[in-house]
Design brief:
The chain is α/β, with parallel strands linked by helices and about 325 residues long. Helix content is about 35%, strand content about 25%. It has helices at about 45-55, 70-80, 120-130, 145-160, 190-195, 205-215, 255-265, 270-285, 300-310, and strands at about 5-10, 15-20, 35-40, 55-65, 85-90, 95-100, 110-115, 135-140, 160-165, 185, 220-225, 230-235, 240, 315. Strands 5-4-1-8-9-10-11-12-13-14 form a 10-stranded mixed beta sheet, with helices on both faces.
Length: about 325
């Protein structure tokens, strides 16, 4: 293991199977598609690649199936510089896949089959624990079983490792005992609305919602409001980082870029404010490039972007 402080992404590893067609089929209809392609994804893997691209020693902990997709997903992680020694391979279970149909208007239909991601359990947590002593940050998402996320957060807390939780995909019921184990929670507008039970769509509702999450026990609540910017709240301070104006191509993996850059900045001992600016910048860059992992910026690209654009944080 490297002596450099490291980060761990504990979560899903998926292959996205994408078909493009002029219109989406109705039940019982067969259509001719225009294109088909596969893209490596899964929020866990995306965040691992985001970290590694930014120069952080990164470990992926999760599962793939013993199939061609699993082999390809592991090769992609390795090529990005992610350590995969703690990724387990499941026999007789498929790798996680997302079946995605996209029409000419950009509308989509998606079926996600968790496959091996649904088997992530206490064995994976034991593998995770072996990495924690040299780790600064643990990133998790909601694409693996909740009981496993809780076990991992408890282990990280015991060893003083910062837990960053991306509560995606959005769910209504988060175990109350998970919140106090989370150092930083990073929902988008939809996700934070589901967590607090009311729409979050501007600064006022974001401030109210982040305050509720603080009361539930998280150390820091970050509301990602897309083009409206980012609200970040701790018990000591609340501040706002405006979004960076860019020409958006697609927002796939923009949230993963945000989390990866936020974590990378914290591994490098930057302040929380600097880390949120890094996250906002990485998310903006990712939204200008098509695809998931292909859109995640390198450290050189991120620093150049920040040097050109400047950055501003506003106290609330």
């Amino acid at each position: 293991m490297s002596n450099n402080p490291s980060a761990i992404a504990f979560g899903s590893i998926n292959m996205d199977l994408v078909a493009t067609t002029s219109k989406l089929p109705v039940p019982g209809e067969t259509l001719l598609g225009n294109n088909f392609f596969t893209l490596p994804g899964g929020k866990g893997a995306n965040q691992a690649v985001a970290l590694a691209r930014l120069g952080v020693t990164t470990y992926m902990v999760g599962r793939v199936g013993d199939d061609s997709f699993g082999n390809e997903l592991l090769k992609t992680l390795l090529a990005a510089g992610v350590n995969i020694e703690k990724v387990l391979v499941n026999e007789n279970v498929s790798s996680g896949v997302a079946l995605i149909n996209v029409d000419d208007a950009g509308e989509n239909q998606i079926i996600v089959v968790p496959g091996a991601n649904g088997c992530v359990d206490s064995t994976n947590v034991e593998n995770l624990i072996s990495l924690l002593p040299n780790c600064r940050v643990l990133l998790m998402q909601f694409e693996i079983p909740l009981p496993t996320i809780l076990l991992a957060a408890q282990a990280a807390k015991r060893l003083g490792v910062k837990v960053i939780l991306d509560p995606a995909p959005a769910i209504n019921e988060v175990p109350t005992e998970l919140y106090p184990l989370v150092d930083i929670i990073t929902p988008n507008e939809v996700e934070i609305g589901m967590l607090v039970g009311f729409p979050v769509n501007d600064l006022d509702t974001a401030m109210k919602a982040t305050n509720i999450l603080l009361q539930r026990g998280v150390g820091c609540a970050i509301a990602k409001l897309g083009v409206k910017g980012v609200v970040c709240a701790t018990k000591e301070e609340t501040f706002f980082v405006p979004s960076f104006p860019v020409q958006t191509v697609d927002t796939v993996a923009a949230g993963d870029a945000f989390n990866g850059a936020l974590a990378a900045a914290l591994v490098e001992n930057l302040s929380l404010r600097q880390a949120v600016v890094w996250g906002a910048a990485a998310g903006a860059i990712a939204s200008t490039i098509s695809g998931a992992q292909s859109s995640l910026p390198t450290k050189e690209v991120l620093i150049n972007f920040l040097n050109l654009r400047g950055a501003m944080e506003i106290n609330l």
